[in-house]
Design brief:
The chain has 523 residues and is α/β, with parallel strands linked by helices. Helices cover 42% and strands 11% of the residues. The protein is built from 20 helices and 14 strands. The protein has helices spanning 21-32, 44-63, 69-78, 102-116, 131-135, 169-181, 197-200, 202-213, 219-229, 241-248, 250-263, 274-281, 328-337, 363-368, 408-418, 436-452, 458-469, 475-482, 484-498, 507-515; strands spanning 13-17, 36-40, 79-81, 93-96, 121-124, 144-148, 158-163, 185-190, 320-322, 342-343, 353-356, 381-384, 398-402, 425-428. Strand 13, helix 15 (408-418) and strand 14 form a beta-alpha-beta unit. The protein starts with 12 loop residues before the first strand and ends in an 8-residue tail after the last helix.
Length: 523
């Protein structure tokens, strides 16, 4: 006998089609919230296995003190299996979690329509397909919406409620209320490729792959920079982009990158890298294949690479001259705190290490754009990334960049100086925007475009991305932390140097930078 629905649930009985990892997670979430759930799968053995697994899960949650025994019993009683689609009659909501193929989802919904009646809501858990296209062949498309959960469903506390072109407002409102009743955060998105989370996620891995393809640094250096140099709300990214690609598996990630790029009619911001396609063709999928960007043992544990090399030993450090500019004082303060002799003057002396602090430029361009109007000696120039703190006690990694002609002695002197307090230093080849600048600016840019297109509210964009991708901040809060004007300067200089339209500044972002508005400001 089914338990009564939760008093706050807008649905009395929920059907779930598909009993794989997503289907059983969705069933668990609703059952724990006290709503009656009917679970169906074309494979009866799969349903039986899912129910046994869920009963075991409830028992383990009780043992760990995370679920009261009476609530576990209620959740078990809320679940039942049915052996045919007709068994879902009487459900006022059916959520499908079947194979990610549009024809299969369309066929399922068309079969369900006469079974559940015209007032029932049909929801798809698709992560990449058009909800509008799934609904297009249905008799009542107004009652169809997206309800996109993330794996593992009980732990990932955000759900995208996707409004298709013909979805009724009342359907969206009921689904929002349902998600809220489970304790998860509902975020409403318009039906566009990738919705919010998979759309916003294009900035991180895609831009890192672009940097790798340009030979800026190796895989491990890029991962270290984004985990350790980035400091947003006191945190960096939990996984580097290549660690993340290995975890999700390239046979999943690369098709998503290509699909979203094509669905947006080759939008340059989402352009995939040929490196991803090549590695996919080679079978370098990540943990599950034993090798991806890193190598793994049979248990899926990463085989450690060589440790990061020690900083060079420099017997005598040259004095330092810092190029004028808005970040010169910051560089001078850090250099002095680390024991450097900092020389003043309108131009550098003949033996001085020249430090520049560009935003969005490469070190070579910074030699010709000195704020003092002086062309700098490229053979003695080293650039330092100041987007995040560099002073002693305030950072976990510093990042330097040389020009193509920087002498090894000056490169090593800069490396030794900025590693003298024990903080590791990454040294990059010359490239616009270092690594962290270009990746973070691209994340902010794409998040701003999602807001510009009214796909979701600024607050929902940030909430979805933080929960769905585990970023230290949502993309718009990232922009606020760095400063919208700074983001625009990075993107503008990247665009100027590369002529690549992926770095163009969107109007929504530019206007807020000009007016000094928070990127979370909704108009």
């Amino acid at each position: 006998m089914n338990s009564p629905a939760s008093s706050t649930s807008p649905f009395q009985r929920i059907g779930v089609v598909g009993s794989g990892a997503m289907g059983r997670g969705i069933a668990q979430l609703f059952a724990q919230a006290g709503t009656a759930v009917r679970l169906y799968d074309a494979n009866p053995a799969a349903v039986a296995s899912a129910l046994a697994s869920l009963h075991d899960t409830f028992a383990k949650l009780v043992d760990k003190g995370r679920l009261a025994p009476d609530l576990a019993q209620r959740a078990r009683a809320s679940l039942e299996s049915v052996d045919a689609l007709e068994g879902l009659a009487g459900c006022d909501l059916v959520v499908e979690a079947i194979v990610e193929q549009i024809d299969a989802k369309r066929e399922l919904f068309r079969a369900l329509e006469p079974i559940v009646g015209d007032q029932a809501v049909l929801a798809t858990n698709t992560s990449s397909l058009s909800v509008t296209a799934i609904a297009a062949l249905c008799r009542v498309p107004a009652r169809i919406a997206g309800l996109h959960f993330f794996n593992p469903v009980p732990l990932m506390k955000v759900v995208e409620v996707v409004r298709a072109m013909r979805t009724d407002d009342a359907v969206v409102e009921r689904l929002v209320a349902l998600v809220g009743a489970t304790g998860h955060r509902p975020v409403v998105a318009r039906d566009t490729p990738g919705f919010i989370v998979n759309h916003a996620g294009r900035g991180y891995g895609t831009e890192a792959l672009a940097a790798l393809g340009e030979g800026v640094a190796d895989v491990e250096s890029i991962d270290r920079i984004l985990r350790e140099q980035v400091n947003l709300d006191g945190k960096g990214f939990r996984l580097g982009p290549f660690e993340l690609l290995d975890l999700t598996a390239l046979d999943v990630s690369q098709p998503v990158m290509e699909s979203i790029y094509r669905q947006f009619y080759d939008e340059p911001r989402f352009r995939p890298s040929v490196l991803g396609a090549q590695r996919l063709a080679a079978g370098l999928l990540g943990r599950k294949s034993g090798e991806g960007f890193y190598r793994y043992d049979g248990a899926g544990t990463r085989i450690e690479a060589q440790p990061e090399p020690d900083a060079p030993s420099v017997a005598v450090r040259p004095p330092v001259w810092i190029a004028p500019g808005p970040r010169a004082a910051l560089v001078a303060s850090a250099a002095k705190a680390l024991g450097a002799v900092v020389r003043e003057g309108a131009a550098p002396g003949d033996q001085e290490l020249v430090l520049v602090a560009p935003l969005g430029l490469d070190a070579s361009a910074a030699c010709r754009r000195s704020a003092g109007g002086v062309d700098l000696p490229a053979e003695r120039v080293v650039a330092i990334d100041t987007l995040f703190p560099i002073e002693p006690g305030q950072c976990r990694r510093r990042v330097l960049m040389t020009t193509p002609v920087t002498r090894a002695a000056y490169r090593d002197a800069a490396h030794a100086l900025f590693a003298s307090d024990g903080i590791p230093v990454s040294v990059l080849r010359d490239s616009p925007g270092f690594v962290a600048q270009r990746v973070v600016a691209m994340i902010v840019s794409i998040g701003s475009e999602i807001a510009q297109q009214r796909i979701a509210s600024p607050a929902d964009i940030d909430a979805a991305v933080r929960a769905g991708l585990g970023y230290p901040l949502g993309p718009l809060a990232m922009g606020d932390a760095i400063g919208a004007a700074t983001v625009c300067e990075i993107l503008g200089n990247l665009h100027s140097l590369t002529a690549d339209p992926r770095y163009r500044i969107g109007g929504w972002l530019r206007r807020r930078a000009q007016l000094g508005l928070s990127l979370l400001h909704e108009d």
